[in-house]
Design a protein that fits this description.
Chains A, B: Its EC number is 1.1.1.3. The structure is a homodimer. By secondary structure, chain A is an alpha/beta fold. Chain A is built from twelve helices and twelve strands. Chain A is 37% helix and 22% strand. At the A-B interface, α6, β12 and α12 of A face α6, β12 and α12 of B. β12 of chain A pairs antiparallel with β12 of chain B.
């Protein structure tokens, strides 16, 4: 398939980098600073060099991407809340032109799920969004193949930054601020880590899961969310005496979404360590499926985008 | 899709039972004793009652299944080795009639993979075989979506009977024969448990995985297999002193297949307990994905069959 990529951050660049390996062609990559467009396939290496070198990804006009002949739009611009713009309109324009949309941007499917599905219903194109939940871990495709009706709940750890911080607090007996600083030094936490540590990032993912299970009905405001900023080191010590630890656990069912720090058995499945993520998918007929892996990262998330591209139907 | 099911054991019956829930229709179910056939959809409940009650699943001729109008043949007859008959010929006949084949029977894809793919290449039908590896756990679809070229190895526990026995030996300090008897009482091990305890069942699954990674080239005879019958209780005690335990671990790469009892960290991912299975899928760009869940059982395996049916292309 021919891919038009919006977003030239870690994910967008990794998708461009790996697309050829999966048998696809990049006809455009753009962000707010510029665009590289070529209907015969752009020179990916040079576009990435320009961007990584501090220049615009190309000299073209980002607006021109929508005039290009592409099969699937990869929406990898930063997640925004509320009206989920400009990501939502990017997806809308592609669908209205009967193109497919593969999202790595959580905003449209967390905040405006039913609106997006309504536009998809009128389009020859389809939306897929595996990359919005759990990075490299195949969560949504597992639910899709099980059929959502057969899935009763999804629970797990879907934010690697928060999980890393809690793992390190427990392992070293250090307090939150200290470990946060360490995480930022390592690049595991951003300069502004708010959405990771206050539970918003995890909540967006579990809202997306609830929308998939219930076919819509949820947005971030519907989620009951508590972050990890107030977890004291002493709570982890106390938990350890009882063979437990604390993780930022989320849960999505057809009835709603909750995210918060929870006690979990120290050696249990939910006590993933470091930046690793895990989902437990509860099913009607097949018990509990656990998928764990790397929940974030450019190449990791790109593999989810490219898995989705592989599952798009012919238009 | 309209399903013709060959095999009326746990798996065949569960597929018939759940097919409606997944939106599919059963037009035939047959085994060596008889067949229930109706192009408008059989009465599944009555067919299952007959079979479970000790009668034939129907009064029809099993041969007539191939004359029925169906979209996908579900091959759920017992796994056989070597020439993989009659399962192989069942699949061949369906493909030669341009129908799809969904296998729960390991024989054709473990022992005659390239032969089957060659027939598929000449057919408008496709083969899928998620149910042959890991029951409810989506292993092959995960590899397919990642693209097999991006997967370097698959490792794990894929036999629940052997895993249950080792778990109980370690937990209770009991010897192999004692725990085997317990497993048979619980229905976790068959009256003839040979293929489970000597590693053959696990090896067939890892051979199938190696065939997927390398696009053929392997059969059971190529696998290096050691079972659990000679693991003494003392080995597990010794392992425990070192924070480890023993599991029957298999590994498939493009270079081959090995199955045998291995030391693993006691609280690590590979030390799944009871009858649970786990696969670790090593990928080029996304690190290690772990999928665990129920590796066997009628409904569990049926969900894998029905996931496959959902992923069949239109003919």
């Amino acid at each position: 398939m021919r891919l038009a990529i919006l977003g030239a951050g870690d994910v967008g660049r990794s998708v461009a980098d790996l697309a050829g390996e999966y048998g696809h062609e990049v006809v455009a990559i753009a962000d707010s600073t510029g665009a590289a467009i070529d209907p015969d396939g752009i020179d990916v290496e040079r576009a990435l060099e320009r961007k990584v070198g501090g220049d615009a990804v190309g000299t073209g006009d980002p607006e021109a991407v929508f005039e290009t002949d592409y099969d699937a739009l990869v929406e990898a611009t930063p997640t925004t809340l509320g009206d989920a713009e400009p990501g939502f309109t990017h997806a809308k324009r592609a669908l209205e032109a009967d193109r497919h949309v593969v999202l790595a941007n959580k905003g449209p499917v967390a905040e405006r799920y039913e609106d997006l599905r309504a536009i998809e219903a009128e389009s020859a194109g389809s939306i897929r969004f595996e990359a919005t939940v759990g990075g490299a871990i195949p969560v949504l495709s597992t639910i899709e193949d099980s059929t959502p009706q057969a899935v009763t709940a999804v629970r797990g750890v879907l934010n690697g930054t928060a999980n890393f911080i809690l793992t390190r607090m427990a392992a070293e007996g250090l307090d939150y601020e200290h470990v946060l600083a360490e995480a930022q030094d390592l690049g595991v936490a951003e300069a502004d880590p708010t959405f990771d540590v206050d539970g918003t990032d995890a909540a967006l993912k579990f809202v997306i899961l609830a929308n998939v299970l219930a076919d819509g009905g949820f947005a971030l405001d519907d989620a009951d969310v508590t972050g990890i900023q107030d977890v004291p080191g002493s709570a982890l010590d106390l938990a350890a005496e009882d063979g437990r630890t604390i993780r930022l656990i989320g849960e999505a069912t057809r009835d709603g979404v909750r995210v918060g720090p929870r006690l979990v058995p120290e050696n249990g499945a939910l006590a993933v360590t470091g930046t690793r993520n895990i989902v437990q998918i509860e099913t009607k007929h097949a018990g509990s499926l656990h998928n764990s892996g790397r929940g974030a990262g450019g190449p990791e998330t790109a593999t989810a985008v490219l898995s989705d591209v592989g599952r798009l139907p012919e238009r």
